Amino acid sequence: MTDANMERIRYQVMWDRLISVVEEQAQTLVRTAFSTSSREAGDISAGVFNLKGQMLAQAVTGTPGHINTMARAVIHFLDVFPADTMKEGDVYLTNDPWKGTGHLHDFTVVTPAFRDGRMVAMFACTSHVVDIGGVGMSPDGRQVYHEGLYVPIMPLATEGKMNEWFLNMVRANVREPVQVEGDIYALAACNETGTKRLLAMMDEYDLDDLDALGGHIIEQSKTAITAAINKLPQGSWSHSMRIDGMEAPIDFVAKLTISNGIIHVDYEGTSGTSDFGINCPMCYTEAYTAFGVKCVVAPEIPNNAGTLDAVTVSAPENTIVNAPHPCAVVARSTIGHMLPDVVFGCLHQAMPDVVPAEGTSNLWNLKLGAGHGITARTDKESSTFMMMTFHSGGAGARPMLDGLSATPYPSGVRNVPVEISEAITPMVVWRKELRADSGGAGAQRGGLGQIMEITSREEAPFGIFASFERVVHPARGRDGGGVGANGRLHLESGTELRSKGFQTIPTGDRLIIEMPGGGGYGDPMTRDPQEVATDVRLGLVSADAAAADYGVILAADGTVDESATADRRG
Amino acid sequence: MTDGARLAVDIGGTFTDVVLEYEGGQERFKLLTTPDAPERAVLEGVDAILTQSGVKASAVTLVIHGTTLATNALIERKGAKTALITTDGFRDSIEIAYEHRFEQYDLYMERPQPLIERDWRFSVPERVAADGSVLLPLDEDALKTLAQDLGKTDVESIAVCFLHSYIYADHERRAGEILQSELPNISITLSSHVCPEIREYDRMSTACANAYVQPMMAGYLNKLKDGLQDSGVVGPLLLMMSSGGVTTVETAMTLPIRLVESGPAGGAILARDIAKENDLDLVLSFDMGGTTAKITLIDDFTPHIARSFEVARMYRFLKGSGLPLRIPVIDMVEIGAGGGSIADVDAMQRIRVGPESAGSVPGPACYGNGGEAPTVTDADTVLGRIDPSRFAGGQVTLEPERATVAVDRDVGGPLSVETNVAAAGIAEIVDEHMANAARVHAIENGKDMVGRSLVAFGGAAPLHAARLADKLGIDTIVVPQGAGVGSAIGFLRAQISYEVVRTRYMDLRQFDPSVVNDIFAEMRQEAEAVVRLGAPDEPLVEIRSAFMRYRGQGHEIMVTVPDRAFGPDDGAIFAEWFAEAYRGLFSRIIPNLSVEVLTWTLSLATERGAAEMAPQQAAEGRAEPESQRKLFDPASGTWIEAGVYSRSALQPGSEIPGPAIIVEDETTTLVTNGFGATVNALGQIIMTKEGSSND
Fold first, then answer.
1. Residues of chain A with CATH 3.30.450
2. Cβ–Cβ gap B440/A27 under 8 Å
């Protein structure tokens, strides 16, 4: 009896260790990566799999976009290279958007781990490379062929020997060959780290294989997530949301069904594909849908093969959430980042007062550049550069809490310091401040967006590769909460810019980016007047908006005028 | 180091520890901290220890002091009324921070609030570019008007942080002069002085934190200095820094932020000397107390140093949930794992331990002070590892039956296992967490556990050291004397030192030796000015580093460079040093990629008062246990007999076979049945794994 019980604890310890192994694997990747999105934004993932391709543990990293996608990718690898054909020292890779993680910039690398000549596991990892050729990180492409080099599942190394011809071809096709090669090496290296740690663990616990441990992990996780789902109200709920899109607005329509320990989301009725690179392959749709559901239903349960099938997703082919080859997909996050808001709209009906209001959701990343092939030539000497920084508007208000200002959700990226960006480009950021009155009014206020103003130090134009949302259709509030402010992109000289696509900022002009706010939660007329007064004191809400949106009248010294407020609120 | 008596004082959250070292002995004294006037406990403690030892106040030649006061002020938000002045357009940088959610799945997470609220953050027109050129001159009139407006408020301290001030500090300096002349009684912190490094949020955060604690710390240090003088202690007062060095009161008053975490730094210094005494060149220092455990790598008798850390983490000790400080610190991982850490069972039937802690009030269930949740101490009690009547020198009588109830209720019951198994599970999981944290920390630094020894101190560490060592493949553990006041003892062994940093971007392809030589000369001068205040004549040791990366990477690695003048050919040599360090960390280098330097540091310290090797100690045979206790053995799942020994009764050379329990006032050392223990000539317990080569 006791032995069996101690055995359970031993399994738990080994499970914890396995999670630590993949965290070490992920850390190695972040610390050696070159692309800004990998190292600063944690846009990577790492995991360990059994020989059947079932994921046993995955590191928690900055992006939900790889949840489930990497887990499914390994199955695709096994279809091409069955486990019994893999040899020690082999490494495989792909950037297939439909078999990997949704666009060509993400490479997934799989490495079999051998112990005493016998294969015991596979490690997989994914990261975002700086460049993959094509039109670059801009949704202007019309087909995936415009978006760069497409690498089907193939060997990166065979029995320890790197595939030099492949690396040669990569170098010839990308704008930053050394960095991209460095990123590919970093992927292979992190799987090596994982393998070393796993073997040390197997030695310590005297394990010949991961069968029993894997079975334990999958079973416990499946039981837990099934129980969590069974505790929820059972039934179906539908919700829709409209966003700006590129050439036309996009409607998301979702029906979420909770039954028999499974949550299913069906996107029937969602708009068709776009002619530009904002289409989303099914794998990425699954990732963000599952992430939204998991945040609400089972945030504590780790991702593995036991949780993979708890959330299922379907969508008719040729909708923008299930875009087939050869649709252009580079900015698939435009769609993916919006899906948790759609899921929350359904879940809110099933379980009130849990999910937040809609937020900015899509990142407001600044992709700026100048030089040959980007901006027009001038007679002055000027730099050629590309810069990518990560920024966020406001998040939606929560049932009991205000929304987070200038904070991403669902993405988990970090921004790049202004001083770092300015050190490597001629850009000057003159302003990066919270945007007053941009948070949706509510009993809980939506998070604020921010304003950035940018010029060039050189007498030359620069360009922006825009891919912004919530410019026409704002984040909506919940339960009486107001909408967040719309985003806006314009020039100091007065010109309004489009929210998507490449545009030029003329010499000497200033680019002004006003990021959206998150939606409010609950009736703003019920917000504690003291909190409104604090928001006004801090300059987050103007006195005018306090009166107009919240019905709170302040005296000259900034304190609440109780009677005037009572009158106003009626 | 010098003749005469030397005092060390460590103010912690609960206790103030005083240690006196004098010709022929060492005295230790512990009393409760007096938060309203911390100097009171210090002065009382100093009086008491002098009386206890019979040493005259006038014989004290040096007082070294470390304190958590600055840390606590930051955690509890009890600092000065502080204003921040930034470049126009950037007053929210301190709040926007990295625009990051540090917790991926929690819809209700909150970001740390800045120390300075938005209506106390101001900006003035001025702008410097990344290359140090002025794009917009400082508007001095606007600043004067702002200063005059601030003069009408109750502001006590001002932080100034302009963009790119790490490369061009004149605007900040000028702003400082104007503020000082308009507001002579307000303390001013310039970011270019506290932290002349690129990355505006980190620099601003460091400057704000310094400004926030400065008036309080300066006031306290003045009172302490006066109080010591009144007690007749005339020896100089030096302050322990987070870097593990000590500095003068004057420096501490201007840069109090460097004192944050000085207590744990003292612990690491003690561990360093213990490493030396036992000739252990690869050590893991393991300090486990009531709430957290701290782990430090010590290689070649030098604790690993970092350039930044986060104070006041408010969310499960998660990275990103605290305030970043860019100061030189002894690199520690802090894990929410201590004697008071609470255990429960999650949805997957897994035992979870910490980071929630029962603290000292109500404390673990077995304290009988109303705590009902099972803690690590409760688990240790159930397993028979702690003698209930002798815990904390008998000050707290533990009630094992309460521990049993708590463990059953929250862990044994939900898992349907016996109490012993549940308790063994709690201990096993907490040890596993610490082992994993240590391993990840090592890999982040390109190190591993092979050949390492453990130095264990703090109230809970000696109980968990043997199992942790098992998990890390470590064969040798040292438990020093006075483990409960380890930090204060460490203070006495620290060197007078100071570290200076500069950000100066340099692509090694355009290596400019004159710039590099100038930077180091400038930094040497600045460091020497500080160190000489405390060590006017002693020889000094200089250590230089360059923080480098491949062009395009986001993280720099530290590369130590020699203390000499550089020439035009040294660019290539720097690249080789970088490649060597990079290979050490990541096992491979990337050919053909250029290398760049971002930041340069120089640290200057007095030579180390060499800790001496412990004399050889002949074996004196087995010690006789005072009694026997039953100990639950997780491996066999049975109760086994263990000998109980009083540490004070053990003589050098005594041998204690495992399983055994060695009891002292401050802690209990558990010798598991895979280990045996001896006492060395210095009275340190040395645990050695049976069958290991060290045996």
1. 2-221
2. yes
